[in-house]
Amino acid sequence: MEKITLHKANTRGHADHGWLNAWHTFSFADYTDRSRVHFGVLRVLNDDTIAAGMGFGKHPHDNMEIITIPLEGAVAHKDSMGHEEVVRAGEVQVMSAGTGIYHSEYNASKTDPLKLLQIWLFPREGNVTPRYGQAAFKKEDRINKFQQLLGPGPAESGLWIHQDAWFSIGSLEKGFQTDYLVKKPGNGVYAFVISGDVTINGTSLNKRDGLGISDTDVLHITADADAELLLMDVPMILQ
Q1: What is the pTM of this model?
Q2: What SS3 class is residue 87?
């Protein structure tokens, strides 16, 4: 029997620190909801707006797969592995924290806000060697289809993480219909609507809504308006 978990945008945790306006789909920092801790191995889905020139100073992570997707603007990143990069909208950054890293992330602009998604997954195995990846993706390659952003590694070409997970994004035109086949038996899919309106397996979703679906092999997707949709295909069992 298909299982569905609906998270409407306005039910997420919210923190406005002035320089940071953050929405939390799952429990994070001062937002705690025992019914919303994770979806399978998906532990964090933060939707952040960061003021010009502001950001997060040097801080540690370990044993987590961290994915950053800038939606508007660019992230200035520096880490203990020696990377000093700028990650722009249209690019995706992945980090395997593994045995431990430190990093900082700031809005690279002194004038314009930065909007990004930061997503954490529990890894398939602990205490791996930390690693970094970054890649750019052409928006025209996701029009009315799903463009893969990352997959399980290290066999996966392109961006990969230490988890049997696949992230895909689609720019769907109003009226477009398609099916998404779950990549691995036992995985579920968490769908996050970046913009627009969609219907997935009979559930209507709007901007910034999230929908977790498990115990199914396929998602039936209809764009009710022009929409940008992120699909996170993840294991449902924590190892």
Answers
A1: 0.97
A2: strand
